[in-house]
Amino acid sequence: MTGAVQPMKNVTLEPRDMADLRYAKSLLENPGFAVRLANLLGAPIEEGFRLLPKNWSRSVQNAVHRALRTALRVATTSLRSKRRGKQASVGFHRVVTGISGGIGGAFGLFALPVELPFSTTVMMRSIADIARSEGHDLRDLETRLACLEVFALGSRSKTDDAAENAYWAMRAVLASAVSEAATHIARHGLARESAPALVRFVSIVAARFGVVVSEQVAAKAIPVVGAAAGSAINVLFTSHFQSMARGHFIVRRLEQAYGPTIIREVYEQIKLSH
Question: What average pLDDT score do residues 159-184 get?
Fold first, then answer.
C-alpha cells in the first residue's frame, strides 16, 4: 500500500495506522468464546450446561466477583512498569493459565473459587503487558483500569445488534464507571472496596465476564473433558482475552493520535472479509 489512506471525507489515517485499526477490528469481532470452545472440543457447550449441578451459576458469579476484585487490586497496586513498546510475553501467560486449567479440570467446579482468581490475575498481567507493548503508560490509573475493562469485552450479548456496535456500546457503558472508580481510587485508594463507585465498576465488568466464565465452566463439565482438555480450555480462555486486549489498546492508542470520534467513524467503515 502506498500513500495515505482516506476511508472517509476529511479524515486521513497513515497506512500503518489504518492497517492497525483493521487488525484491531478483526480481533474485537472474532467468533464468540462459545464458538471457539465448540471448535476445540467438537461438542456443543449446551451439553456442558445441562450437566452442571443446581446453583452452579451462583458459584460462578461468586468466583467471578472475587476474581475481579483481586484483579482490581493488582491493577491499582502493582501495574506500574515504565517500559513501553517492548513486545508482550503472551506465550508465557498462556502456559501459566494452561497449567492452572489442568488442575482445575481435574477437580471441576470445586476448584473454581481458587483457580479463577489465579488465572484472572495472570490474564490481568498479560493484558497490562499488551497495553504497555502498545505504548500505554501503566503509571496512569485510567490505563490500569482500562486493563480491567478488557474482561467486559470478551462476550456477546443477545441484545448486541452488531459486533462493532457491541464494542462501542460497552465502551460507553464503562466510561462513567471507570471515571468514577478512578476518582475514588485517586482519593481513597482501595481502603473502601465496598464504595459504590468500585462496586458499580466491578459489577458491570462481572456481568459480561461471567458469561465467558460460565461457558468455560460448562465446557469443563463435558464428560470427555479431563485435565488435559481443561488446560487447553484455559489456554483458549487466555488467548481470547489477549486478543480483546490487543484490539482494545490498539484502538485506544489510535484515539490518542486522531481523537475518539475519528477512530470510531473509520472503524465502522472498515469491512472485514469472513
Answer: 82
